[in-house]
Amino acid sequence: MNRELKIFSGNANPALAHEICAYLGQKLGEATVSSFSDGEIRVKVDENVRGADVFVVQSTCQPVNDSLLELLIIIDALKRSSANRITAVIPYFGYGRQDRKDQPRVPISAKLVADLISTAGADRVLTMDLHAGQIQGFFNVPVDHLYALPVLLDYITKKKINDLVVVSPDAGGVERARAFAKRLQANLAIIDKRREGPNQAQVMNIIGDVQGKSVLLLDDMIDTAGTIVQGAQACADKGALDVWAACTHAVLSGPALERITKSCLSQVVVANTIPFRGKDQACPKLHQLSVAPLLGEAIRRIHEDESVSSLFA
């Protein structure tokens, strides 16, 4: 390709950006992403990007609004520096839970954020495990939507867990859990859950047989861990011998770590779309897997105008 490949990163997840660069044999692009004393974000691209094919790796994770604004400003800086094409690589897309009007007088924030990224100058978006698949349609630019399933699947397969049942913690995740169970040749169960408010969930019933089985709770994200911990306890109460959990995005806000530590969960397997912070690393029940090779391969194929579809499985 005549266009030079360059990869830049904000402050949200630089470790993942470095892993992606290592996979591609690239050097991370030089840029200053800092703040003025009043908190205003300052960005300066410290190398020539004219005519380059540029990828910006930035999860919109905690601090969510700072991470999002960093992404927008980096994209704008690259656009004004005459980059040929800018791809926003967003391993974790924040505001994804606000994808519809589920009550009167509320915004569709996922659509607003998609518009902001397009307006800033992104020509393409590469993301992973959106909370709702229809968010792809919120963008006015091409979206490549990857799944961490192959990475999680490989780890669980190597564990050789006997009598495994894959459990969806709610009705919305059934399709994800069914695909996972099919590949593991495992049975499927569903937790019937009623949500009483933001970050609050109450387990109502388990549809399926978990008695005497090993259980794997599968979700796209763990935020305050209320859903996953209540689901784990419900499975244990129904006679499950061993309860595991797996998710792509470890948001882990509020009381999440305390809940996981005190729960009946044996292990919680997560991807590194969101970096561990402080106490996260010390939690013995958390195990982090890298999706850098998957993202790196997608970046390589996009740069070389090859098909990315085989990575969507």
Which sequence of SSEs, written as H and E, runs from N to C?
EHEEEHEHEEHEHEEEHEHEEH
**Rounded to an integer, what's the Rg over CA atoms?**
20 Å
Largest sheet: 7 strands, mixed
Spans of at least 5 consecutive residues whose pLDDT stays below 50 are none
Mean pLDDT: 93
Distance between the termini: 27 Å
Please indicate the percent range of residues in DSSP E strands (runs of 2 or more): 25-35%
Total strands: the figure is: 14
Helical residue percent band: 25-40%
Structural class: alpha/beta
| Alpha plus pi helix count | 8
- The geometry reads as globular
Can you list the strand order of the major beta sheet? 10-9-8-11-12-13-14
General description of the model:
There is one protein chain. By secondary structure, the chain is α/β, with parallel strands linked by helices. 30% of the residues lie in helices and 27% in strands. The chain is built from eight helices and 14 strands. Strands 10-9-8-11-12-13-14 form a seven-stranded mixed β-sheet, sandwiched between helices. It has a five-stranded parallel β-sheet with strand order 1-4-5-6-7, sandwiched between helices. A two-stranded antiparallel sheet has the order 2-3. Helix 7 links the parallel strand 12 and strand 13. Helix 1 crosses helix 8. The longest helix has 17 residues. The two termini are 27 Å apart. The relative contact order is 0.13. The mean pLDDT is 93.
